[in-house]
Amino acid sequence: MLLENLTWEEARDLAKEDPVVIVPLGSTEQHGPHLPLKVDIASADYIARAVGERTNALVTPPLNFGFSELWHKYPGTISFTADTFKSALLDICNSLIRGGFKKIFLINGHNPNLIVMQTAAYEIIDMFEDEDISVAASTYIFMAADKCNAIGENFKDGTHANEMETSIMLHLFKDDVRWDKALEVGENYRLRKAISFDAGAMILNKWPDSATYNGVYGDPSIASPEKGELYLEALIEDISQFVYDFKDGKYDPIGKDGRPKDR
Ligand SMILES: [Zn+2]
Q1: Residue 118: closest CA among 142, 82, 145, 146
Q2: CA Rg, the chain, in Å?
Q3: How far is the CA of 186 from the centre of ligand 1 (A)?
Q4: What is the rounded distance in angstroms from the CA atom of residue 237 to the CA atom of residue 240?
Q5: Distance 161 CA to ligand 1 centre (A)
Q6: How would you list the strands of the sheet with 134-139, edge to edge?
Q7: How far does the centroid of ligand 1 lie from the alpha carbon of residue 201, in Å?
Q8: Going residue by residue through the chain (263 aa), what tens digit of pLDDT does each one get?
Q9: Which residues surround ligand 1, an ion (CB under 5 A)?
Q10: How far is the CA of 172 from the centre of ligand 1 (A)?
């Protein structure tokens, strides 16, 4: 169900059924020479809508911009600062909660957003501590990790404009993929990183720019639409299961009696 198609009266009545509300998040940012700027939000929005259809969760319109400071030197990238992004998340959650909704699932296609999403979730729970609100915040690539790793190179070399994202785009928006450029990137492939987590510490020393770095992690030339379909199936299946479990409170760390749950 899409929130945008409801009337306010229907939204009011639906809130009483305590549905999970999915908010698609992502970015408008560079994805190498071969993919359009929409990858993160278009994929998150697609997955959110498919999961919403399968589980009867309510899906809000997507927020097309995120925390994309890492790629700010690449033309076309539109980045919120962390403060603006957090404010947008607080306003979205606050509006939903004022409308009577209690279970909010922020699903994200751009992993750096997650730092800010978690901060916003802390603040929301702080603001509404006595009102039985639950917030889930995740980047979708981590929600079906085992299945995705069995399909292809989900995590190898990072997940930006890589084989996985390129496969998903080939499946969803074939005409938007510049395949000749993907092959070119593949030919010149060597592992490059704009940010490092190699030693267990985040290391950032300079902003990457388009003169020195094509903005791709991994080798997109091994992508295929068939793999894209398999990735999406795995993600939609596991994330749908998560939505059922989230609605049931399966993962709530604190029980209804206010005490931490035993596992
Ligand atoms: Zn991406």
Answers
A1: 82
A2: 19
A3: 17
A4: 5
A5: 6
A6: 58-59, 20-25, 103-108, 134-139
A7: 22
A8: 999 999 999 999 999 999 999 999 999 999 999 999 999 999 999 999 999 999 999 999 999 999 999 999 999 999 999 999 999 999 999 999 999 999 999 999 999 999 999 999 999 999 998 899 999 999 999 999 999 999 998 777 778 999 999 999 999 999 999 999 999 998 887 777 888 888 999 999 999 998 888 899 888 999 999 999 999 999 999 999 999 999 999 999 888 788 888 76
A9: 39-40
A10: 14
Q: Where are the domains of the chain?
A: 3-153+232-248
Ligand 1 centroid from CA 212, angstroms: 19
What is the Å distance from ligand 1's center to 69 Cα?
14
Q: Which residue has the tokens 């909704």?
A: 101
Distance 94 CA to ligand 1 centre (A): 27
Multiple choice CATH, 3-153+232-248, 3.40.50.10310, 3.40.190.10, 1.10.10.10, 3.40.50.300 = 3.40.50.10310
CA of 36 to the centre of ligand 1 (A): 10
In terms of Cβ atoms closer than 10 Å to its own Cβ (0-12, 13-18, 19+), residue 239 is: buried
